[in-house]
Structure formats: structure tokens, C-alpha cells
Amino acid sequence: MSIAILGGTGPQGRGLALRFARAGRPVVIGSRESERAQTTAGELNSMLSGAAQISGDDIRGAVAAAGEMVILAVPYSAHNATLESVRDLLEGKILIDIVVPLADGDPKKVDMPAAGSATEAAQALLGDEIPVVGALHNVSATTLNHLDQRINCDVLVCGNDLAAKEKVIELIRLLEVEAYNAGPAVNARCIEAITPILIRLNISKKVPFTHAGIRIWAPSA
């Protein structure tokens, strides 16, 4: 079944499209302009061989073409408006919200909405009948787009619907990363807030690496 990625022409959306297509899942990327989405899809397909197909459409067309999973990867400024525009098409689907509410003009800080997090804001907007799962907040877009590199972090998954979370965890594991159930949607407040910390570390001249991620480590033997 196809995965829809709304905001699929941006860095995170492009990287996820490449990774999922390479893992064998067809992808349709959605943009406000269908022509732009189709052009991006062609560029991405040219980077892959023996992979599932990536196609492009406008936002509503992408959601309509999705099987069960719809990934929201738009800038936070477009978060609510995008959801409102497709709410009537999301029945029977799972929304995977990867958006982080970074402060305007300063990505080293979060600016959480009144709901507490982007994930909670999405759930409140869509209603309880459409499960929202927060995931993939802390994965570097640069790493996602370098297919010769393994994704260097684990993924924390949160949401109020256990069955939906388990399906999302199974999907994310197609990317050869570990994903963990991190609890209800309210925990997205903590998970989303990790991203600006990683951004701060990654741009620090005192840290000898970039594009860092987080891992959940087992105790030493």
C-alpha cells in the first residue's frame, strides 16, 4: 500500500520518500503544487533502482492515494492548515505527525502550541476517530537523504491509539532502525523538544560531529 508524505518536496519528506521506496513501499508525495510534486518524484526515482515507485500529486490527491499511512512533514507554520484541508480524507487512515514546532527564526528553541505539542494539536484538530501518531521527530534530514549512510538513531513513537502505534513502529522498522513505544500523545512534548537540542549540538563548534541522533542503550553486561 502506498504511503502519502505531505510536504514530500522538503528535505525530510524527500529523504523519507527515498528510504521507504528503497524498502519496497510505494510512496506518493504531496505538495501544494502538483507539478512540483511530480517533478520532485521524477528526481527521486532517478536516484533509485529496483525500488518501489515514487509519484507526486497535490496534498489532497496524495492523501486520497494513500493506503493507510499518511505522513505529515510540512513546516510547522503550515501544520494546522494542511490538516484542515485534508481532514475529510483521513477517515480510516493513520496520521504520522513528524512536525516539530520550532521557534520562528531560532531552530534551537521550541515554541509549543497551546495543545502542548504538534502531535497533540493534530489529534485535537482531527478528533479521536482519526489516530495521530507522533514519530521521526529527531531524525536528521541530511542523514535521511544520504542513502549510503544508515540512520544513526532510534525513533520514539507516541500516541493514544496502541494499535496505530504498533503499525507505525512496524513501518519505521522497514528503514532498518529501532522504534519504541514512548507512551501517549502527551509525551510528544518531550520528544519534539529533543530536536532543537540536537540542532544546537550539531551546529556547535565545540561538538566534533554533525547530524547527531539519539539511541536507547541497553545496560552494559
Automatic annotation (TrEMBL):
The keyword Signal does not apply. Residues 3-101 form the Pyrroline-5-carboxylate reductase catalytic N-terminal domain. The keyword Oxidoreductase applies. It comes from the Bacteria. It comes from Marinobacter salexigens. InterPro entries: NpdG, P5C_Rdtase_cat_N, STEAP_metalloreductase. Keywords: Oxidoreductase. The gene is npdG. Pfam families: F420_oxidored. This is NADPH-dependent F420 reductase.
